[in-house]
Amino acid sequence: MVSRKKTVKPGFKNMILSQIPRTVRKTRFWKRIIEEAERSKRSRRVVNLYKISRLTKPGDVVYVPGKVLGSGEINHPITISAFSFSKTAYEKILKAGGTVLTTREFIEKYPTGSNVKLIG
Q1: What is the mean pLDDT of the chain?
Q2: Helix (H) or strand (E) holding 53
């Protein structure tokens, strides 16, 4: 039997925590994200597109500390990042003209988390 190990930095329990550098961990926004990432996968938040569409307007920047599901429609472009996306949610966001960022890309663009909506 071959054992397969994920490449996670020592001391981290999951991949999301390993992507957040120490330089931004002290901000209030990223402390909240870390708190959510430390929850068990079973108790993480799940957000549908119709909720995101209802709570945002064109051009908003959004972070979802959980999974984004494709139920509903989104009819305006947003910049969004999350722990994970369903395939349909990802496609619908791109079809609406939105931008999907990985957590690492999101940290580079918005290190302080200011003017970012946290939905979930």
Answers
A1: 86
A2: helix 49-55
pLDDT tens column, 32-47: 988 888 888 888 899 9
CA dihedral 36, 48, 77, 63 (to 10 degrees): 0
State the Cα–Cα distance between residues 28 and 109, nearest whole angstrom.
Answer: 16
Q: How far is CA 85 from CA 3, 18, 46, 66, 70, in A?
A: 27, 19, 10, 9, 8
Range of the domain at 71: 15-118
CATH classification of the domain holding 90: 3.100.10.10
Q: Count up the domains in the chain and report the number.
A: 1
pTM: 0.82
Q: Which of 111, 120, 117, 119 is nearest to 30 (CA)?
A: 111
Closest CA relative to residue 113, chosen from 51, 61, 68: 61
Q: What is the DSSP code (8-state) at residue 43?
A: G
